[in-house]
Write a structure and sequence with these properties.
heterodimer; A: alpha+beta; Uridine Diphospho-n-acetylenolpyruvylglucosamine Reductase, domain 3; Alpha-Beta Plaits; 16 helices; 19 strands; B: alpha/beta; 4-stranded parallel β-sheet; 24 helices; about 50% helix; about 5% strand; globular
């Protein structure tokens, strides 16, 4: 896909980059660049250069170097993204943030921390854990993904239901703009005056600027946590429980649903304690003051029983709770055990329509002769259908994309969204017209052109090219590639 | 150097691996390149580049299999830098058996890639001629012991002579294990009776280099076992486990060693075969992997062997432990050996044993699951990376305020000792779990 430059040319630019950032932080040889053609989703083109900056100054200077040579710049955290946000569509310089991973300041009194973008999400929580705090957004990849990537994608996670997504936890940013200038947005406190530029940058997927420093809010660990596993013999009983829980006015910290197919794969992988003979389970987490949690728990259990739950198990200690969550958080990867390839989708629907959507997915799977597992952040209607396939079979790969597209269209039709937390990236740019009008998209493009007029930052992402319509842009390839 | 000429992409072509064992599709196709392994990988944590991450290494192996790139210097460099610590296996949700992949890739490198002549000679000489041969080991052990005890070693170390030594020889020299007197070899072929009624009959796997430099650890292990009702048989004809050879890609040599051990230990009826070395235990339990694609007649015997193989902490934690221990008021921290925690998935057993010692305070070590840099002979051949990992490890140890680091593998003990010797607190001790148990049992006597 990319028009890569010659090795001599790359070596020359690499020399200039090395003068800025240091000798051992620039990759230009083909065999090294090959390792930057994939992320958690797919394999795409190779970059022309990969540079690992260690300061904001480096980032700014490399951006200017790229400008002088008309090269796009693509920011990359850990490369765990699931929409192709960090892969390269048409060559350019990848700025890898794996070495900018210092926690610059922990300010417990004011419940905030200042970090470099390469800090791993879970590492921040571990660093403040002794003080009784954590960083609330918890994407399933939290043990590997970086906060910079989280900001770019506005990542969510199972606890989004109660705590919100990344944007609700970012107070301020330092950003390098496409012209190399450095700006600061937000402040170390809530609600600073002026426009909310922080909000604009969070979730902009590297198309407006590159974040070089992040001030985040820290959250105090709850006094009590209770994790329940509700086990069902019928999927519909599980989905109706979800609707009933929210109808009762209860907001659990997390409310996850896994169908039988998925939970069996997970059980084989992590022995999380999900009964293999069940049709679906709900993982329900309640947090807060001890008394409140107990009261809510009684209410939740009553709702489950009213919806024909087979059994409710309560995690007795931290170890049991971790086990239950390990299963959920490793769910995507666990698919690797039962199928050589899988394609994870990310969509949103109103949670009241979960039963209808499940039927639709089941029917689509049957129609295209594909096995589809279901895992939902059920509480906020965020779906993750997992479509199994074998990429060595070209026919299957084609059917996978068709089935996934249909599911996305159904989400849009139900008044939902084409992505809940994985971002648009390269994968879903052509689906944007499903949920936004031409005017909506034009306004976003206008804003982009103010910051990024030459489309030099992460080109080919987020916005439809207009050449395709309603198609998923993923390359499904064989081998270690998931597609 | 290259196995296959570079070719243009996107044309199906033959694998870059030669005939014989190579990374298998059934194993690597499980990798979904989700990246959840990255932050668990010691080399990725240090360098931050995909080429030195588990996902990236697998990707490189896949590209060789696809014939897109050959087994060349770049490939070898990144596969060599892997510690084979298998932390990525713990992190991997898809159950990718990374150890199998990297070991197969190293087999390919050893068979088909031409390393510089002297390096190649040293590898083969040490791993295939010295380590598996009791008499050469003993000879070298005697020379080293003389060197260490005559004062010559101290003279050389204090003289500053090593500063003029090439490369990182000075660093490597201080990793040399202390030769003990007597060697453990004289125990081979003996049987140590249980103290009190015999409840179990077990075999002890003594190792190779451990016979020279871990006599006291092996003796402590015997004392702890017999005090727990074990009659311990120490078969005479046993040899090196083959772990170093498997990690370096000498699969045929490893198979030869495996066959001998299988023969020696499979005959008599033992309740368990026990080792105190996590690195050995892991490969001993994985003997069947060596016979899946070659010399398959040994697959069944290898399975029988590996089913009986147990780490000493695994064995002790599963039986009713003798709790007649004296109070041991030490503040200790525990470093998980990678080949115990990741390869054998044994994390609770050693902690359970430590918590059974009265008066002992166990402080958890942050990142105890991250490799200390020892990794067999990795600290010798990849000394720079090993030193970086050790420095991070020592920092974490300092945070615990513990006066003893406990671990469960001789290799890790050497590496940690070398870290302590250069730290601000050189009085800190490194002990094996069974040595602490032995101390609590009052086991300072010879059996």
């Amino acid at each position: 896909m990319s028009e890569n430059k010659s090795e001599t040319w790359r070596k020359a630019i690499a020399g200039q980059a090395a003068k800025i950032a240091g000798d051992d932080v620039v990759l230009w040889r083909a065999e090294d660049l090959m390792l930057y053609e994939y992320d958690g989703l797919s394999t795409m083109g190779k970059p022309d250069l990969v540079v690992f900056p260690s300061t904001t100054q480096h980032v700014s200077e490399i951006v200017k170097l790229a400008n002088r040579n008309n090269l796009p710049v693509i920011a990359r955290g850990a490369g765990t993204g699931l929409s192709g946000g960090a892969v390269v569509s048409s060559g350019g310089i990848v700025l890898g943030f794996s070495r900018m991973k210092k926690i610059l300041e922990i300010d417990i009194e004011n419940q905030r921390a200042r970090v470099q973008p390469g800090v791993v999400n879970l590492d921040l929580s571990l660093a403040v854990s002794d003080f009784g705090y954590y960083y609330a957004p918890d994407p399933s990849s939290q043990k590997a993904c970086t906060l910079g990537g989280n900001v770019a994608e506005n990542s969510g996670g199972p606890h989004t239901l109660a705590y919100g997504v990344t944007t609700n936890h970012v107070l301020g940013l330092e950003v390098v703009l496409p012209n190399g200038e450095v700006i600061h947005t937000g402040a170390a406190y809530l609600d600073p005056p002026g426009y909310d530029l922080t909000g604009l940058f969070v979730g902009s997927e590297g198309t407006l600027g590159i974040v070089t420093e992040i001030t985040v809010r820290l959250t105090r660990k709850p006094e009590a946590v209770k994790t329940l596993l509700a086990i069902y013999d019928r999927v519909h009983d599980a989905t109706s429980t979800v609707a009933s829980i929210t109808a009762e006015g209860i907001t659990p910290a997390a409310l996850e649903m896994l169908d039988g197919f998925t939970l069996r794969a997970i059980e084989d992988a992590t022995h999380a304690g999900y009964p293999r003979d069940s049709a679906a389970v709900l993982l329900i987490e309640l947090e807060g003051l001890r008394e409140a949690v107990e009261e809510e728990s009684t209410q939740v259990e009553a709702v489950c029983r009213a919806n024909c739950v087979r059994q409710i198990r309560v995690a007795q200690n931290a170890e049991e709770r971790d086990k239950l969550w390990q299963g959920r958080k490793n769910a995507f990867g666990a698919m690797g055990r039962i199928s050589p390839n899988y394609y994870v989708q990310d969509g949103v629907i109103p949670r009241t329509r979960l039963p209808e959507m499940l039927d639709f997915i089941g029917e689509a799977g049957a129609r295209y002769d594909l096995r589809i597992g279901n895992i939902f952040h059920a509480g906020d209607g965020n779906l993750h259908p997992l479509i199994m396939f074998d990429a060595r079979d070209a026919g299957q790969s084609g059917r996978v994309l068709k089935a996934a597209s249909e599911i996305m269209m159904k989400c849009a039709e139900m008044g939902g969204s084409i992505t809940g937390e994985h971002g648009v990236g390269i994968e879903k740019s052509e689906l944007m017209p499903l949920i936004f009008s031409e005017q909506d998209i034009e306004m976003m493009k206008t804003i982009k052109s103010i910051f990024n007029p030459k489309d030099s930052f992460n080109p080919g992402k987020v916005f439809p090219t207009g050449k395709l319509c309603g198609e998923l842009r993923v390359q499904i390839s064989e081998g270690a590639a998931r597609g | 150097m290259a196995l296959a000429p570079p070719q243009t992409p996107d044309v199906p072509r033959a694998s870059g691996y030669g005939p014989g064992e190579a990374p298998k599709w059934e194993v690597y196709s499980k990798c979904t390149h989700c990246g959840l392994c990255l932050n668990s990988c010691p080399t990725y944590r240090e360098l931050g580049v995909e080429m030195d991450s588990p996902r990236g290494r697998i990707y490189q192996m896949v590209q060789v299999a696809k014939g897109r790139v050959p087994v060349n210097e770049s490939f070898v460099q990144h596969i060599d830098l892997c510690l084979d610590c298998r932390a990525c296996e713990t992190a991997c949700p898809s159950g990718v058996e990374y150890g199998r992949l990297v070991e197969a890739a190293r087999g390919q490198i050893q068979t088909y890639y031409q390393r510089p002549v002297f390096e190649s000679f040293l590898r083969r000489f040490f791993l295939c001629q010295v380590v598996p041969n009791r008499f050469r080991l003993e000879l070298i052990g005697n020379i080293l012991r003389l060197y260490q005890r005559s004062g010559l070693e101290r003279l050389i170390q204090t003289s500053g002579l090593l500063r003029w030594a090439p490369g990182r020889l000075a660093n490597v020299a201080q990793l040399a294990p202390r030769m003990e007197k007597p060697f453990f070899f004289h125990r081979l072929g003996t049987i140590v009776p249980a103290v009190g009624p015999r409840k179990y009959r077990v075999a002890f796997f003594a190792g190779c280099i451990a016979n020279l430099s871990f006599t006291s650890l092996n003796e402590a292990t015997l004392r702890v076992l017999v005090k727990n009702g074990c009659e311990v048989v120490i078969p005479k004809a046993q040899g090196c486990c083959g772990a170093l050879q498997v990690h370096a890609g000498f699969r045929d040599v490893a198979r030869k060693l495996a066959r001998q051990n299988i023969q020696v230990f499979n005959g008599p009826d033992f309740d368990a075969v026990i080792t105190n070395a996590a690195g050995c235990g892991s490969v001993l339990k994985e003997y069947p992997q060596l016979f899946e694609d070659a010399q398959t007649a040994f697959l069944e015997p290898a399975r029988k062997f590996s089913n009986r193989m147990q780490d000493v902490s695994e064995f002790l934690a599963a039986i009713e432990l003798n709790r007649e221990m004296k109070a041991t008021p030490l503040k200790v921290t525990y470093q998980d050996p990678c080949h115990l925690g990741h390869a054998q998935r044994i994390r609770k057993a050693p902690r359970l044993l430590l918590n059974a010692i009265p008066g002992l305070e166990l402080v958890e070590l942050k990142e105890s699951e991250v490799c200390c840099g020892s990794a067999g002979i990795y600290n010798i051949i990849q000394n720079e990376m090993a030193e970086r990992l050790l420095a991070s490890k020592m920092q974490r140890v300092d945070e615990t305020g513990a006066d003893t680091i406990v671990t469960a593998n001789p290799g890790c003990m050497l590496q940690l000792r070398s870290g302590i010797a250069r730290s601000a607190n050189p009085a800190r001790k490194v002990m094996h779990v069974v040595e602490l148990l032995d101390q609590a049992y009052n086991g300072d006597h010879l059996l």
